[in-house]
Task: inverse folding
């Protein structure tokens, strides 16, 4: 085993301070590798304890989500670049973007032998949407006709009228309104089929889920708080065929312990390098690292219900803030290039992404223009010089403090106003103020895509009244532009319309895009063929032993 | 004696009620809605949230929640955590692991602390004494997480003598390194306590008498010095067992031990009241019982101590 001098030095210094700048990183990361490799190895990877029983529609966090993705196959799955490919679906057709006919492949089975038919899908989706089953991801079905009736509080309706079984292999879906990107969503875990036993006793099923995906759970595979063992499903014949003898998620409470395990080859793949090791992981791991953008971004949302941030003055001020932030500098210095400066509201790995939408110049650092915009806003409505502009963030995880402080300093220096970071002890605390609309300043907001679509970064966050609209942004012109995008007859026309809608956002700036997320992971010298998908999750099924 | 023990057990009842009430109140007062947090940064689905609030009694006022929790204890059903598992099963999983870790740490600190302390005391001012005194001072002054990371990195990663984190079974072998880290600070205290106590007793009249009677050096040390010196040490060790079990959060985090501390930390972050209270209550009971055990051990160590009913 090799240990660079840097890693030794860091180990020693970590003892005293836990924070130390190592030397610069090595060469550029090389992802993937040649094909081939040992397919008889069980791959040991890091995971976290699922928060809820392992029901696909009840799983909305990464710990359970990764397991669900591997144990279940939906109508489509996403290839590494985020393109949907048919998995259980034979075909998905819908010319008007509102009514879809879905054909399911023949002879599909769960690992318990139960056949998967059109009815399986309809039953599973109805179960997920019905309020009486209290599934956390239930709102993923909200576009389907009849969802409102089934999901209303206290409702006893158990089916959505928009779903109809035609025959064993075919069912139809009617949406409330045209949504051209709806088929893109079908790879999300909430849309997978579950066996009939799951619907009868979801609690027992959540302990020992039975799926139809590339992997199945080993006997007694879920040792709570310890590990989750998956073994290949021999009957799986979709595009994600396992190339190893199984994947075991070892459950970690903290990433630092996982990193130590990786260094000593006790862990094969670590999905996210902990912040404490970002400076030296390349010298520790050599070419066994990856640095790959994925569908996620970081923004600062500024609520428009605050008087000084509303109207024309508010808009100018937000533009000033945006132009006063030097994204290049922060991504280089704070993140060692583990982020990419944002040029729009979405993410570069998505189909339809454009880095040169008119208005994106508002995201470029320009101190003079920033001061100018601020002065113009002051002419309309004077900024109280004693007032402190705060940027709220959660301090429990994610390592946000460093970059928030950097942004705070840049704003102070460029605009000459009082700015402060405002830490919340926990994520849940910060969400409380955001949902109750009682924020007193800006708040950090990040978005990880649920499915690879531009709309997923725009609709749920900036539409009037949308659930994650922390900024309380309401602009009928934008809503109309988004609706046009959803009405488009093809995905590519839809993407063009979405980028048109982004032009409005880039002027209004309800949130200030900062940077795109980059997945930084590493692996041991026992495995090879490691690559990451569009969502920043390793393609576990492709990993082999050396 | 029996009456004394019974009395002590009865005293546990108010301690138990007080501890559960206090902890339940603290968890209840934590800011943030745990159900809303389950949705992450996705919009909260009110219908689903309402249903979950009812399920976990979070729609009730504080005292009602607490009474419902007490009721669940007396019906031996501690309720469920957020992943739908019985809390009793969670306790049965995590406590054996932490108990193993704490007992190993206790054995480590007791054996090495007493032996080193005795030798240092008997050879006051010599090289060994000076060395352990300085070493124990260093150990006491360095925070436990620093020692943890240090040993994990040097012994676990660089030398490869032990795994940096424990394996899924958390065997005795896996737990050696975490137990040493956990017990190091107390080891230094035990050592210093034993040494001081031995020094005191060496000058006691009965030791001089024993030596004057012509008893062997070994017998003088074992029966007259050591046994008398152990009283304060045993008090410390007994109280320490409870501290070790509850205080293992940091150590368990560093070595990824799937024990009480890890689970408790996660339950606090997610705001799972019943899980937190159940774990803490068991910890409180262990603390009380180990103290009772210490009091009973006194009688054995020092026949002059008698318990009156």
Result:
């Amino acid at each position: 085993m090799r240990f660079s001098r840097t890693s030794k030095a860091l180990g020693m210094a970590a003892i005293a301070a836990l924070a130390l700048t190592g030397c610069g990183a090595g060469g550029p990361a090389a992802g993937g590798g040649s094909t081939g490799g040992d397919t008889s190895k069980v791959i040991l990877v890091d995971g976290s304890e699922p928060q809820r029983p392992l029901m696909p529609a009840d799983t909305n966090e990464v710990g359970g989500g990764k397991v669900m993705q591997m144990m279940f196959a939906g109508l489509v799955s996403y290839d590494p670049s985020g393109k949907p490919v048919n998995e259980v679906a034979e075909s998905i057709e819908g010319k008007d973007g509102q009514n879809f006919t879905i054909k399911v492949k023949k002879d599909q089975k769960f690992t318990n032998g139960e056949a998967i038919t059109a009815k399986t899908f309809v039953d599973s989706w109805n179960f997920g949407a019905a309020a009486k089953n209290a599934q956390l991801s239930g709102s993923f079905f909200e576009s389907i006709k009849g969802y409102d009736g089934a999901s209303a509080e206290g409702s006893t309706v158990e089916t959505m009228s928009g779903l109809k079984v035609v025959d064993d292999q075919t069912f139809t879906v009617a949406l409330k309104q045209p949504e051209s990107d709806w088929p893109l969503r079908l790879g999300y875990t909430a849309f997978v089929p579950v066996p009939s036993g799951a619907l009868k006793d979801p609690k027992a099923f959540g302990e020992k889920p039975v799926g139809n995906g590339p992997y199945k759970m080993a006997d007694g595979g879920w040792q709570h708080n310890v590990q989750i063992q998956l073994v290949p499903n021999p009957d799986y014949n979709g595009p994600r065929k396992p190339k190893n003898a199984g994947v075991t998620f070892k459950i970690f409470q903290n990433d630092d312990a996982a990193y130590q395990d990786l260094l000593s080859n006790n862990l094969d793949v670590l999905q996210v390098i902990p912040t404490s090791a970002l400076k030296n992981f390349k010298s520790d791991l050599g070419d066994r690292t990856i640095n790959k953008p994925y569908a996620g971004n970081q923004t600062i949302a500024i609520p428009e219900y605050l008087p000084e941030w509303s109207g024309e003055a508010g808009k100018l001020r937000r533009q000033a803030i945006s132009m006063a932030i030097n994204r290049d500098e922060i991504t280089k210095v704070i993140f060692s290039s583990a982020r990419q400066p944002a040029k729009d509201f979405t993410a570069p790995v998505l189909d339809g992404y454009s880095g040169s939408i008119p208005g994106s110049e508002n995201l470029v650092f320009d101190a003079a223009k920033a001061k100018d915009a601020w002065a113009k806003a002051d002419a309309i409505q004077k900024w109280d010089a004693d007032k402190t502009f705060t940027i709220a963030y959660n301090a429990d995880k994610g390592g946000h403090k460093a970059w928030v402080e950097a942004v705070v300093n840049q704003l102070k220096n460029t605009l000459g106003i009082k700015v402060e970071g405002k830490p919340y002890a926990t994520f849940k605390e910060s969400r409380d103020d955001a949902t109750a609309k009682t924020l007193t300043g800006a708040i950090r907001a990040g978005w990880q895509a649920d499915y690879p679509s531009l709309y997923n970064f725009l609709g749920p966050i900036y539409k009037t009244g949308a659930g994650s609209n922390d900024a309380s942004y309401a602009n009928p012109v934008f809503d109309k532009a988004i609706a046009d995008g959803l009405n488009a007859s093809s995905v590519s026309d839809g993407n063009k319309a979405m980028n048109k809608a982004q032009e409005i956002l880039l002027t209004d700036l309800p949130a200030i895009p900062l940077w795109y997320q980059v997945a930084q992971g590493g692996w041991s010298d026992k495995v090879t063929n490691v690559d990451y998908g569009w969502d920043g999750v390793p393609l576990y099924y492709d990993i082999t032993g050396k | 004696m029996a009456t004394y023990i019974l009395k002590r057990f009865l005293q546990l009842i108010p301690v138990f009620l007080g501890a559960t009430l206090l902890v339940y109140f603290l968890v209840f007062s934590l800011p943030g809605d745990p159900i809303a947090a389950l949705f992450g940064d996705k919009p909260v689905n009110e219908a689903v949230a309402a249903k979950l609030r009812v399920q976990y009694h979070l729609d009730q006022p504080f005292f009602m929640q607490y009474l419902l929790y007490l009721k669940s204890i007396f019906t031996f059903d501690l309720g469920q955590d957020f992943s739908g598992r019985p809390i009793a099963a969670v306790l049965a999983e995590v406590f054996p692991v932490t108990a193993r870790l704490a007992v190993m740490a206790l054995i480590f600190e007791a054996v090495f602390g007493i032996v080193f302390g005795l030798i240092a005391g008997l050879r006051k001012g010599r090289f060994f004494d000076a060395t352990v005194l300085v070493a124990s001072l260093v150990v006491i002054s360095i925070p436990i997480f620093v020692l943890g990371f240090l040993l994990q990195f040097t012994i676990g990663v660089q030398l490869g003598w032990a795994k940096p984190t424990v394996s899924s079974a958390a065997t005795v072998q896996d737990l050696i390194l975490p137990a040493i880290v956990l017990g190091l600070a107390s080891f230094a205290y035990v050592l210093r306590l034993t040494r001081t106590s031995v020094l005191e007793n060496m000058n006691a009249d009965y030791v001089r008498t024993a030596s004057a009677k012509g008893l062997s050096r070994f017998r003088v040390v074992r029966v007259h010095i050591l046994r008398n010196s152990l009283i304060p040490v045993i008090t410390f060790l007994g109280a320490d067992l409870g501290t070790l079990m509850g205080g293992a959060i940091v150590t368990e985090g560093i070595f990824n031990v799937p024990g009480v501390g890890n689970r408790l930390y996660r339950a606090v972050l997610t705001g799972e009241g019943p899980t937190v209270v159940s774990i803490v209550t068991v910890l409180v009971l262990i603390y009380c019982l180990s103290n009772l055990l210490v009091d009973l051990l006194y009688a054995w160590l020092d026949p002059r101590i008698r318990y009156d009913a």
Q: What stands out?
A: The two ends of chain B are 7 Å apart (CA to CA). Chain B touches chain A through 56 residues (CB under 8 Å). Chain B is about 75% helix and 0% strand.
